[in-house]
Write a structure and sequence with these properties.
This protein is an alpha/beta fold. It folds into two domains: about 325 residues, Rossmann fold; about 70 residues. Helix content is about 25%, strand content about 10%. The chain has nine helices and eleven strands. The strands form three sheets. A seven-stranded parallel sheet has the order 2-3-1-6-7-8-9, sandwiched between helices. It has a two-stranded antiparallel sheet with strand order 4-5. β4 and β5 form a beta hairpin. α3 runs parallel beside α6, α4 packs parallel to α5 and α6 packs across α7. The longest helix has about 35 residues. The N terminus and C terminus are likely disordered.
């Protein structure tokens, strides 16, 4: 079992970076109510059920949990709540970029991330979020994008703005924070905010970035202790070549040809570790709903312990996210799931846990055997003792008449 090294980017076309940039303090008076430039037309989404929904059987999964009652913070470029499949799913939080409304999204990145997590079912669309009843807390911090030749463009946020957004998410009672952004600078203010969120029992998930072919620079916040770092795989299960590799990768999840919500409406297709991270955030929301007694550290450990392994290398971490196993399997990170919710026998994937279970089973078996032997002893010895008037002896006297059957001894059998 791959245990978390910590308790523990963006799309090829959309990379949010926060490295070393400072932005003047936003003024609410000049915050735009609409995007100054019309967002570019999103790529059309393919027809039919998205491949991710074929990989994760959501009918079976959402019969156990759908994210209801769990607030997931999407710290990103904002979330466009006008999309029909996000209506009623989004709460607006403070905008650290302009001081305005975090449900304004001028580049569509945060809207796509939110759709992976919580797109509501619709008769007009085959798309469905992995946690379709979860609530999204939109927090706007940046709108930098990356062109197809990896050239960054657009406004970047500040480390202070990101740190403020993380603390805002905690203050507003988010149970999971999704960070589909990356900085290649270790900023103390961001590190402190991440540690604050983890200490506040919040699951923090971050994309590991798309710079594998550009030297794998260390990505933050994904590289911080306690954060679940997420890489991306293609429909064939192989790591996307641009998905970064290193010890900061804990899990991989779908991150290519991802069908999700677009701004202002409709669907689009996106790529990158930015869109792999929200699958893990959604799974964390399902787990927090299904097992509310688990701490954030236990949720992180459970997601990692139940990943599907099979591929080696630093780019895969513990393996591919498996939300259904995370909900239903017993590991050292989780208690026994409710018996009524399990369709079949659970599997203990923790060797130490399995050994402890075997010891408990043996002890219970020996205790039960001792109880049965004691009961049999009472049933046999007590009547004979009565017939002898409690005199010691090895056998009945030949001259003694046979007594009538004794019906006072306890009977043993299955409980009724």
């Amino acid at each position: 079992m791959a245990m978390p090294r910590r308790y523990g980017m963006s799309a090829l076309a959309l990379l949010l970076a926060l490295a070393g940039c400072l932005v003047a303090a936003p003024a609410a008076a000049r915050a735009p109510a609409t995007c100054p430039n019309q967002p570019r037309q999103p790529a059309p989404a393919p027809s039919g059920v998205p491949w991710t929904q074929q990989r994760y059987d959501q009918t079976m999964l959402n019969a156990l949990a759908d994210g209801r009652g769990i607030l997931v913070a999407v710290i990103d470029s904002g979330v466009d709540a006008r999309n029909p499949q996000l209506q009623g799913a989004v709460q607006a939080g403070p905008d650290q970029l302009d001081g305005g409304n975090s449900i304004l999204d001028c580049v569509g990145h945060g809207t796509g991330v939110a759709g992976v997590i919580a797109a509501r079912p619709s008769a007009a669309s085959p798309l469905r979020g992995l946690a379709p009843a979860a609530t999204i807390l939109a927090l706007r911090v940046s709108e930098q994008t990356e062109t197809e030749n990896a050239t960054p463009t657009g406004r970047r946020g500040s480390p202070a703005g990101l740190a403020n957004a993380i603390r805002d998410a905690v203050a507003r009672h988010a149970r999971v924070i999704n960070l589909s952004l990356v900085s290649y600078s270790d900023d103390a203010v961001v590190r402190d905010a991440v540690n604050f969120a983890l200490a506040s029992d919040v699951v923090v998930v971050a994309a590991v970035g798309n710079a594998a072919e550009r030297g794998n620079p260390t990505p933050y916040p994904a590289a911080y202790d306690g954060v679940i770092g997420v890489g991306s795989i293609a429909p064939d299960g192989r790591r996307v070549p641009t998905s970064q590799t290193g010890p900061y990768v804990d899990l991989v999840a779908p991150g290519a040809q991802i069908v999700t919500t677009a701004t202002p409406d409709g669907r689009t297709t996106m790529d990158g570790t930015s869109f792999a991270a929200p699958f893990v955030s959604a799974a964390a929301a399902l787990l927090r709903q299904y097992h509310p007694e688990l701490s954030a550290a236990q949720v992180s450990a459970q997601l990692i312990a139940t990943a599907d392994g099979g591929r080696a290398g630093p780019g895969y971490g513990a393996g591919v996210l498996n939300p259904y196993r995370a909900l239903t399997e017993r590991t050292g990170a989780s208690p026994n799931p409710p018996a009524h919710a399990l369709p079949g026998p659970a599997h203990d994937t923790n060797p130490a846990g399995a050994a402890a279970t075997e010891r408990r089973t043996l002890l219970l078996g020996l205790t039960g055997l001792g109880t049965v032997l004691l009961a049999v002893l009472i049933a046999v010895v007590l009547p004979r003792g009565r017939r002898r008037s409690w005199r010691p002896g090895l056998r009945e006297l030949p001259s003694a008449p046979a007594p009538p059957p004794d019906h006072t001894a306890p009977a043993f059998g299955p409980p009724t």
